[in-house]
Amino acid sequence: MLKTEPLPAEQQLRNAALNRDLSKLGIAILLLFLLSAGGLTALAFLGPKNSTGDAQVATPDGTILGVAIIVGPNLVLTDADVPGAAQLVIPGTQANPLQKIRSEKFEDNVSFTLLRSEHPINTKEILPVGSVDPAVSARVAVASGTWDGSLKAKPNSQYFDFDPSLPLGPGLPVQQNHTLAAVSAQAGGSVVAVPLKHLMTKFKELSAGQ
Length: 210
What we know:
This protein has 210 residues and is an alpha+beta fold. Helices cover 22% and strands 36% of the residues. It contains three helices and 13 strands; from the N terminus they run αβββββββββββββαα. Mean pLDDT is 83; it is low at 37-52.
């Protein structure tokens, strides 16, 4: 039988120190992994629930009410209920206080609210107002997704249907030819496109853009 000689005392001490260092390193890596995973989980569950890239109408304390559709240098349109003080929140800019002008109801219980901003809105956020053209492709592009398709006139209605149907929801800007042609809205059991020209029949401010 082979006989093993014990390691010198100095070598045993070095090995023990190395094992302790490796144990500490392993624990540190494990803690870093757990902290990173926990941070990502917290962001997923506690972070903003609304689309982060869109202009939003919010209360003074930051509660998001709905998407803000910029329709003029100081005009904002939204399908959200705005009961009191509000502000325009655009990623990368300071919050802009909003004053409610009024709300108007349209066919099929569709309702929109027009607000005026305290400070001018950056012109790059403003699309020119256009008209709906069924022969031209349409697009809805927001932080939550993009829809491309066409708008089809609804029989006996001022509204248009989305083809294919719009899964992104109501209160969103609909573009055609790089203009703001319509806004999506919940009408009965479906989401429809309400032409900006139709909204102008009650919101005369949209014609002047101020």
